[in-house]
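Repro:
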Amino acid sequence: MSNSIDGLQFPLQSDTQKASSSETGKAILAEALCIVDNKTSQQLLHEKNWRKQYPRYFKALVEHGIRNTSNPITIAKQGLHKAQNSFEFYRDGHCYLLKDVMEIPAIDQFETFKFQGQHQSEPEWYVPYHGQKLQGQSLLTQIQIWEEKGIIEPSHAKALREVIDHPEWFDLSDRTMVLFGAGSEAGPLTWLAKWKANIIAIDLPNAKVWQKILTTIQQGNATLYAPALEQLPSNLSIDEIKDKLGANLLTQIPEIAHWLVQNPHKLDLAAIAYLDGEKHVRVSMAMDSIMQYVSDQKPDSSLMYMCTPTDVYAVPKEVTEASIQKYQDRSKLQKSVTKGISSLSLKQMFKPNQQKLISSDNGKAYGIADCLVIEQGPNYALAKRIQQWRATLARHHGQMVSINIAPSTTTHSVTKNPLLKAAFSGANLFDVEAFLPETTNALMAALWIHDLKNPKSVANPHANLEHPLELIMSGANHGGLWRVAYLARTALPFAALYGLAKDKLPIEKLFKRKQGS
């Protein structure tokens, strides 16, 4: 935990007077569950092995969310209310509840620095993939391949085809797009900079980060608006301004929120900032507070989130049926080998991905894709759950919300974990594809544009949804994780082993051999 007493912090526990991300996370999830399943809520509060057992409680949230179409709203309200009343904000030796943070007197006032791209080129879109720039027919062919292999869902493929059919959607000169964590490796900055967007970039005061952001804007046709603590001449070079821009989401929440509200334009707010460990929960809560405040003051604002595939989701019935079928269609040799490994691991490896269908009060049945990876930890899961809750609740209240599942991506934050790096390297053994950042950027930026520009998109609160959770399951690019034959985390160690040894051992031939061969 951070020793800092400035900005947004986890609350101190009354018995120890120390901050605990585990205890706070448990309390938030327990509150989210308490109305729909009080028994499990109480079990959660008394869970002794939280870091190992947290997946079962996140799964319980989804199970109960499925059963009744009002439950996702109840869960989101309860969880967000508890979070807003739990986290604390420190300034000048005073402690405030996060829910009161916008009432804190501002100590800074941001000025707006405007920076114009140097190019006048028309917006274009392509997908960088294995050294190629896929466009037109080549891109349509690859989309079909991904769809047939179960890498992307049909709704994701449909959205990509629609943006191909509507190149005019990429002219974003009429949009003002706020990027929290603008320099994020998996974020859409590179593409927005080519699409004439008005970009409000929020990222830490860091010369290296702003060098990247400013250079990206300079090379495109967009307009950048950045926060600064002083008025800056418009004719400064990148080297002269890169260390004068930026804002801290953890310590300058009220200043950022008030600065954004002063903007006269309709805002599209994108929560893409990422930090490691417990800081990811804190930055998610900071973004949530700012986005909620801006939305209250500017109700025509839209929200955007990118979900991780390594989470637990409600999924269409046919997805669950496909994963069961894949398990049944394994080759005889693969069945024999995985059975042996499972026995040696005391049945902890290669558990079948055979989730039961759950009936909803809307007359439909849904499955569950449990792709949580223990190694990513409960803080990561909580940070992403907070975003899902806000998305669900905001759309319920009539706000436009773009929330799409992005594929596993080999960003630095992922590959610095040796196990995850090796696992994603070996993921193709189980028909899972991990994407390079430039491919994910192109695909997910296009999905955001689709959601904003297509009135039939589920992001539009006027579009009909039979269940609130369909907002998140629509448009998913999970890289194949939803449809794997095994519970993902029980195959991860073997995928990692294969990722390390695939150049030396013929494991892939064994796993890819057809049934009966």
